[in-house]
Amino acid sequence: MTQRLDDTDCTSDDDASECAKLQGPGYLRYGDDRLREECGVFGIFGHPDAAALTALGLHALQHRGQEACGIVSYDGQQFNSERRMGLVGDHFSRANVIERLKGHIAIGHVRYSTCGDPVIRNVQPLFADISTGGFAVAHNGNLTNAVTLRQELISSGAIYQSTSDTEVILHLLSRSKKNRVVERFVDAIRQIEGAYALVSLTNEMLIGARDPIGIRPLVIGRLGSAYVLASETCALDIVGAEFVREVDNGEVVVITENGLESHRPFPIRPARPCVFEYIYFARPDSVIGGRTVYDIRKQMGVQLAQESPADVDVIVPIPDSGVPAAIGFSQESGVPFELGIIRNHYVGRTFIAPEQRIRDLGVKLKHSANASIIRGKRIVLVDDSVVRGTTSKKIAKLMYESGAREVHMRISSPPITHPDYYGIDTPDSTSLLAATMDLEGMREFLGVDSLAFLSVDGIYRAVGFEGRDPRSPQFTDHCFTGEYPTPLTDQSGVAIPRQLSWLAEVG
Amino acid sequence: MTQRLDDTDCTSDDDASECAKLQGPGYLRYGDDRLREECGVFGIFGHPDAAALTALGLHALQHRGQEACGIVSYDGQQFNSERRMGLVGDHFSRANVIERLKGHIAIGHVRYSTCGDPVIRNVQPLFADISTGGFAVAHNGNLTNAVTLRQELISSGAIYQSTSDTEVILHLLSRSKKNRVVERFVDAIRQIEGAYALVSLTNEMLIGARDPIGIRPLVIGRLGSAYVLASETCALDIVGAEFVREVDNGEVVVITENGLESHRPFPIRPARPCVFEYIYFARPDSVIGGRTVYDIRKQMGVQLAQESPADVDVIVPIPDSGVPAAIGFSQESGVPFELGIIRNHYVGRTFIAPEQRIRDLGVKLKHSANASIIRGKRIVLVDDSVVRGTTSKKIAKLMYESGAREVHMRISSPPITHPDYYGIDTPDSTSLLAATMDLEGMREFLGVDSLAFLSVDGIYRAVGFEGRDPRSPQFTDHCFTGEYPTPLTDQSGVAIPRQLSWLAEVG
Amino acid sequence: MTQRLDDTDCTSDDDASECAKLQGPGYLRYGDDRLREECGVFGIFGHPDAAALTALGLHALQHRGQEACGIVSYDGQQFNSERRMGLVGDHFSRANVIERLKGHIAIGHVRYSTCGDPVIRNVQPLFADISTGGFAVAHNGNLTNAVTLRQELISSGAIYQSTSDTEVILHLLSRSKKNRVVERFVDAIRQIEGAYALVSLTNEMLIGARDPIGIRPLVIGRLGSAYVLASETCALDIVGAEFVREVDNGEVVVITENGLESHRPFPIRPARPCVFEYIYFARPDSVIGGRTVYDIRKQMGVQLAQESPADVDVIVPIPDSGVPAAIGFSQESGVPFELGIIRNHYVGRTFIAPEQRIRDLGVKLKHSANASIIRGKRIVLVDDSVVRGTTSKKIAKLMYESGAREVHMRISSPPITHPDYYGIDTPDSTSLLAATMDLEGMREFLGVDSLAFLSVDGIYRAVGFEGRDPRSPQFTDHCFTGEYPTPLTDQSGVAIPRQLSWLAEVG
Amino acid sequence: MTQRLDDTDCTSDDDASECAKLQGPGYLRYGDDRLREECGVFGIFGHPDAAALTALGLHALQHRGQEACGIVSYDGQQFNSERRMGLVGDHFSRANVIERLKGHIAIGHVRYSTCGDPVIRNVQPLFADISTGGFAVAHNGNLTNAVTLRQELISSGAIYQSTSDTEVILHLLSRSKKNRVVERFVDAIRQIEGAYALVSLTNEMLIGARDPIGIRPLVIGRLGSAYVLASETCALDIVGAEFVREVDNGEVVVITENGLESHRPFPIRPARPCVFEYIYFARPDSVIGGRTVYDIRKQMGVQLAQESPADVDVIVPIPDSGVPAAIGFSQESGVPFELGIIRNHYVGRTFIAPEQRIRDLGVKLKHSANASIIRGKRIVLVDDSVVRGTTSKKIAKLMYESGAREVHMRISSPPITHPDYYGIDTPDSTSLLAATMDLEGMREFLGVDSLAFLSVDGIYRAVGFEGRDPRSPQFTDHCFTGEYPTPLTDQSGVAIPRQLSWLAEVG
């Protein structure tokens, strides 16, 4: 399952050149997708193997980000940091690395995979020596006023070490007039806007926090006497920790030797978690609200079968993201579920066909057709979403070439019409298929016999609501509805210089 | 899908120490599993992008071997070789590598993944300068008299450059008294015994060959005016080549500028392809005998449901290998198919938990339970085979811990009671679960409520026969039956020194 | 010629374990030698190959620092940075690196070689985005109030990206209330104390500056219409630039499209350049005051022969640092000059004998005796300085073992009795041989027949003065005299926390 | 001191493009300089730290070859091999490498530095499993009938693993009909022609051998009860071994647990060691015939001053190779010796100026002028040899540009008029300056006021003879005289195919 909300990546054939363009000079500017990442966070307090357990937790969260990973621990004397490009298992499985990360407290971060050439100074956790001591932070989400705050801070003499939106938190903390770290931390997060699930580390505490409406997820677990914070429950499972509860929206939890203490620095508001965690991001075995995400996704397939049935011979998922909904669709419709498309799991992000001649052959590096299932059949293709539509179009074509008599596409979420600003890397509106075409236009573009999306209410029903409450929507769902739940300060500030750093540096 | 016929690998927790042992000194001795590999081969004659297409073909065959890969091309002047440890996409996707592999003829090889520390001199294709010119060979299979021949050759002055069984072919060829290369090649393969699908390259021809009973697969394709040879049809599909036919058992095909010429240097015998290609090795979308392998595996699940039904609530595959049979089992039994186990695709072969303390927690790096599906249910677990049984046992335990009421294990192939000597890396008999226990013993060891394997005849029926013909079995199936189809010369020679090389060299 | 003012390094046998200790955790704390480095700087304005010429200039300055190197250029759009551990020629000779460093302005830095494990964030040039735009700085020297300033800056919210003393300049600049960059720069350097030769880069200018008494060197050159700044004239020579003049002590030169403009922000004082540039650091072909450094060093040997003659058969330099003085000594005394000690130029800093057993054999990795020259002779050994004395002692022993009848040691500089705080990595007083023993004690420790140092006045005479002017010494010579020319603020502040960063990070 | 008999290398400016050409495809063909290398060998029998001492010995012999190095040890069970591109200190100083090379017997090899892209399969020691067990060999020299023998061996079925001339020894040994290894070894070396100093290793012995006239050097040492073999005495010194004697020309020494046993398989002939060891290759502190090489080279300078005096102000060596002769010239003539040219020791072989524009500036990466010494002076430049003359020409020009009034070049060896075929990498005759011009032509080409070479008899006198004995010359001196001391079989065989391997492989 890819975590990037996009149906195109560098391994698909005709996007190779686009990637090459993006990889160019190796620097980051505002406007690049890469500044706004989907990520995973983990933290643990009070365990002798804090760093090793953090590595395991990050491994379980690897689907949330494959570009880079990092861990910071505190050992009673100093903070220890390791930040690397690539997968957790490639860097943090060796004993010598883990041994450098001594201590009973640790936090970690995984970052998502782009085609670009990112730099190590943007890899989290970020760290600062401030007057109260060392402070490290790992962030999942995106701040919508980070550029505005950055300009103000630089004007008054701050020097940034990265182009990450997260760094603003360190500067606000460092400049706070408060004495205690927790007070400084609250001071800082009161000034930021947008989506955040944060885990932070000092020499004596682990801090967790979610933004006022809880857009990005964060859960609390216990492992013996130790406390764990993680983006998803699957990271508790891998270390054998017991699920305690979610961190509430707008809550700050401070874990010290005296246990967990909860702060509520914001006015109480209803929670509005991001609906894409259910549709797309969370791992199928993670539990939200007592149900596994797999179960919810299957239910989306059930809803979809009810809303938009099709008279076909076989239900085929687009692997791997469409599998749970396809199973639900199959069970509800009684039409057999079959693996009509086989995915090559050895496709990394670097396989680029070297010769135009070859790419013109229509080479399929990632997906291939299972001819016995497809030939002569009427099929429903099930996927969880459509972003640009380029991959869906290619797969539909592959189905017809493999002998399908009819191809009906069913998407287990509504059309994506608006970009995200809260940590999901969506293309801008002009590249979002559903932002530029109506349903019939999309059907024609994709070249299928019929096309249907799950309704917005259908999503809410699959999760267990009766439907969307328009006065107080239960989810952050602006990608489908255009209703953004927070101010978008950076988007409105026309006068803001867009260049975050004048420095290009590799490595 | 793992290609190694084993249910244990270095990523599972309690095998880490075993791997560490194997990795030791970095050399290969007879008796190590590593000398007898499952592999994939590819060759192409007559295309300006020969090496690039070979890289794509190897990528499609990557499931047959992830340890190492290599390509040799001939450009009219010289042979060009690149051999690397690791995946095809990691090494052969860069233009500068492909550009070094100039020419219109190329062959390639992928080798399977072990925990050991292999050496580049064993990576194929192997090459020799012989008096008729350069000669390269890539081999899938295993020769059962390679050690015996090696001893004879060394006694008469041959110097080996590798510890690969394949090298014997080069020496036999080089010492042949025949004048023409094809005659020398036939001279050589008449002296070898065992299983082989070979693709070879000279400065003017591409040669393909299968052993007299066709144990390992090899197919012929056409891409415009070019000829392609490959282990499976999925490698034809990726380059857009058209399937022509299989190379027959005992056939040698010689492809030159004048087209394809067929030789039959052996007495005609019935074919006996290895049954494990159907059960385990081939990619689901590859076609054998007009049907996709997925279809055949699903049918094994259907047979299994008929032979050994179970009164349960849900059918759960052990991912990814058990999925097709589980779908068949579900369709035949009418019990719902559900993904009750989630697999982490980011597990590489190097993730070893660093601390005993952590491994004792029972960390699950690779598989996790989908609790909503399992809790309170009676389940059938479907897998395609059981080798040592250690992973199956752990998964069964995970199911009970996740709340399963009953766990019934169904295996879509018969018990493996005998080791292989034809290119499949099986543990020796003492480690094969079914070689040491009866059915009830295995059930108890695995800790499940019931256990059933598909019958030997069931396998034959799933492929389309009425059953196994005991006078002339249609498959090489000795792992289930103990009937080896060829002499095992090296196994019988008690006097043979077991040390293939006295040299330990890294890199 | 080693640039570190020490006669021990990691390649000499019995210091290996000391190095191992230093290499430990990979972080830097105040008190480690590594914070106070000898370095080289280079800058160029107005040439299309600015970065390539900077790489050449740094190569010529490589003797001033081998640990790390970096270049920052500005290309009209953005700043481009490459910073690496290791030698210039290993990193900046490849076209693809130089091509990334586009632009007509560039500055660069080389840093000296330690045994420790430094981190890339400390490699210069350092860069900051400040409100007036990007600003990069490269620094040779050491600030004596950097820790004090750092504490104040962190207390008011500054976040450091390195543990380098140089970074304080960026923060002072960023926080300055002045509008123009040059004013901010002057504002910043007025607050710092100690030794500095700085080259800085903005989007429109190259800035050079020397501290008020000009402890560290900086020269101006012209290459066609381009301006060059460099630590020594040898860096002008390599790029074919013409020497213009030295930057004066306390001068700030600002080079823009309009040419060079000079600022004098400090009260006028007499210059006091560091005497060690003459004795030790500068390359022999560099020119100071119209004479090559080789010539001056030879003259030190002449003075030494006059002050402390010896009745011997042969003059032997300790290579390579003792060669010029030995030639002078030989010419003045009429005793033949011979290479009695051969140096192995392939000794890198990593060759550590692996076994105690071997090290006990007294292995000589670096120096060996030329027996024909030594055997039966009375010799004078000439070196330029003695720091700890450990290497000198070993070489003297080697001479006796090779058959020398008498060994007389002559040092072409005075005894080093006080540590440096201006950019030279001296051990603390307890490790300085001359700080702990008198002349006879040292002679006994070194195990030689006689020992003599050049007098302080002798040094001044070799350079061309009549002697040292005690009321206004012409050089910074505190290592010999104890007279430090500036306040040592950080040394006096007993209350200052010594830990610069709590963060340990590798890479 | 460079060991390649050439005055050009890749670091000099205008040869960069030539190197780029050579680096091209990464394969070796007959006719390339790279097949015929100058090298160093080392072996030790009977010491628990055999590999570590071999690494030290190779380090002392590093001047004989910087391209690659390797060590093979035998530990009682198996042979252990490590072969690497690059310097000994970069690869064999780490404990983990040495620990893999267990055992009490070891041999090693260093290979010289070219600009090309060599392959690991050519790095020595070469190893073969033959019927008597493992056998490893390291070779300094060059065989003049290796190509002829290779053709014969391949015709009868031998398969080569390298393109090294040395491998022929392994095949002859492997095919010998003798029973004992020593007999096979003698059998083999009786068939080879040319120059060789060999050290070989089996599971129970160390073998050393020199060709019938002893062209390449080999000495015997003792370290306690252990025996050592090495190319030069400096490798005995570094491990603390005592010099015993040279291996005689035509002698085979076999060292086992029973001590050293000497064989003389060839008719007795007078020795004719290569004169270039004295002039060029051996390290200055190595001892030949009781005198250090430094001493002999100084004497060449003395002879040269007597033969070709010059009325000048200063004697300037071309560093480092010209230093000893310049000291001798200075002492004999009474004219002062001065370092008028400074060499940059940080020039590796990879520094290539990236832009034609820059190279046109006449950048000097390696040598710079010491202006104080040169300006207004009449100088003698002393070097040990002239090959192509390109570097000498540049340095002469540099002297004039630095103000020299007169430049007189004095070469401390005779003109090189003939190429070598015994292990010295000379260019072919058309590139040898002295093969294409007379003395006046050369003077003009080099652009100097006068030019003189040492006479052939002068060389002999410097070593201690009265002159060359024309009936039985004491040295192999064909480069000066054209008298080759052995048949040159491969040179005469016009029918021999020149392509040693059709395989191009990188790495």
Automatic annotation (TrEMBL), chains A, B, C, D:
<dbReference type="InterPro" id="IPR035584">
    <property type="entry name" value="PurF_N"/>
</dbReference>
<dbReference type="GO" id="GO:0004044">
    <property type="term" value="F:amidophosphoribosyltransferase activity"/>
</dbReference>
<feature type="binding site">
    <location>
        <position position="384"/>
    </location>
    <ligand>
        <name>Mg(2+)</name>
    </ligand>
</feature>
<feature type="binding site">
    <location>
        <position position="383"/>
    </location>
    <ligand>
        <name>Mg(2+)</name>
    </ligand>
</feature>
<dbReference type="Pfam" id="PF13537">
    <property type="entry name" value="GATase_7"/>
</dbReference>
<feature type="domain" description="Glutamine amidotransferase type-2">
    <location>
        <begin position="39"/>
        <end position="258"/>
    </location>
</feature>
<feature type="binding site">
    <location>
        <position position="321"/>
    </location>
    <ligand>
        <name>Mg(2+)</name>
    </ligand>
</feature>
<comment type="function">
    <text>Catalyzes the formation of phosphoribosylamine from phosphoribosylpyrophosphate (PRPP) and glutamine.</text>
</comment>
<dbReference type="InterPro" id="IPR005854">
    <property type="entry name" value="PurF"/>
</dbReference>
<keyword id="KW-0808">Transferase</keyword>
<dbReference type="GO" id="GO:0009113">
    <property type="term" value="P:purine nucleobase biosynthetic process"/>
</dbReference>
<dbReference type="InterPro" id="IPR000836">
    <property type="entry name" value="PRTase_dom"/>
</dbReference>
<dbReference type="GO" id="GO:0000287">
    <property type="term" value="F:magnesium ion binding"/>
</dbReference>
<keyword id="KW-0328">Glycosyltransferase</keyword>
<keyword id="KW-0315">Glutamine amidotransferase</keyword>
<comment type="pathway">
    <text>Purine metabolism; IMP biosynthesis via de novo pathway; N(1)-(5-phospho-D-ribosyl)glycinamide from 5-phospho-alpha-D-ribose 1-diphosphate: step 1/2.</text>
</comment>
<protein>
    <recommendedName>
        <fullName>Amidophosphoribosyltransferase</fullName>
        <ecNumber>2.4.2.14</ecNumber>
    </recommendedName>
</protein>
<dbReference type="GO" id="GO:0006189">
    <property type="term" value="P:'de novo' IMP biosynthetic process"/>
</dbReference>
<keyword id="KW-0479">Metal-binding</keyword>
<feature type="active site" description="Nucleophile">
    <location>
        <position position="39"/>
    </location>
</feature>
<dbReference type="InterPro" id="IPR029057">
    <property type="entry name" value="PRTase-like"/>
</dbReference>
<keyword id="KW-0658">Purine biosynthesis</keyword>
<keyword id="KW-0460">Magnesium</keyword>
<dbReference type="Pfam" id="PF00156">
    <property type="entry name" value="Pribosyltran"/>
</dbReference>
<dbReference type="InterPro" id="IPR029055">
    <property type="entry name" value="Ntn_hydrolases_N"/>
</dbReference>
<comment type="similarity">
    <text>In the C-terminal section; belongs to the purine/pyrimidine phosphoribosyltransferase family.</text>
</comment>
<dbReference type="InterPro" id="IPR017932">
    <property type="entry name" value="GATase_2_dom"/>
</dbReference>
